[in-house]
Amino acid sequence: MRFYDDPIEISAEVWAELLTDSEVTRKEDLEVLKLIYESRNHEMHAKEIALKLNLSHHVALNSQIPRFSKRVIARTGVPPPIREDGSIRWWHVPFWGYDKRNGTGSWIMRPELAEAYKRIFGQDDSEIVYPGEMTVQDSTDLFEGAVSKIVVNRYERDGKARTKCIEHYGYRCAVCGFDFERVYGPIGQNKIHVHHLIPLSEIRREYKIDPIRDLRPVCPNCHLVIHSKREPLTIDEVKEMIGSNSSQ
Ligand SMILES: [Zn+2]
Ligand SMILES: [Zn+2]
């Protein structure tokens, strides 16, 4: 099985332009790219991607990615990767990997694309530090009653829970109504925070997060205000503070 890593004349700068152009890179493409980017080596199997995105079958991806690639080629005008028989290896525009005709392999983001993705979306929100919360590593300390570190709580960093919360509530801040997606477009999607409603002091070892019951999307400003006291303010308390200025 041959591994395909043919070069393509698209630099990281150009990929960056393509990624922020919603006519080329659609929302569903960004979802796929995000998953791959966040995987080890920026590598992921199509079946796994389909599973995570709740696509009924990875065949759906095998038409979505070529459509994305076609828009990339149409916009840039660079020659696409071609098979010996003259057909175009569309998946090979954004990815490295094995040809589907020779069995299924995983997709690896081209380094220039990964670099571009990092430049645009790369800020890792999980590194943002907020008062009154704690890291994954510190969660054991929590159960032993030794809460000392001050960083974002693991429930707010849990990617799956976050995704479910946002799927349910959308990208609007539950406090002030600011809509990241509407205001900033695709880049904004990654910037909304989720706030965990249950005070850590009330959490027991057997606690299992319910993303819809326990999490709410909040903008970074409101999130900062919520955590401005040792005991987090409630969403209603912060809503009251901004009062009539709130958009909803
Ligand atoms: Zn807000
Ligand atoms: Zn929070």
Automatic annotation (TrEMBL):
Annotated HNH domain residues: 173-228
Keywords in alphabetical order: Endonuclease, Hydrolase, Nuclease
TM annotation in the entry: none
Gene3D superfamilies: 1.10.30.50
CDD domains in UniProt: HNHc (cd00085)
Entry's Gene Ontology molecular function annotations: endonuclease activity; nucleic acid binding; zinc ion binding
InterPro entries tied to this protein: HNH, HNH_nuc
Pfam families: HNH (PF01844)
Superkingdom per UniProt: Archaea
Protein name: Putative restriction endonuclease
Record lineage: Archaea, Methanobacteriati, Methanobacteriota, Stenosarchaea group, Methanomicrobia
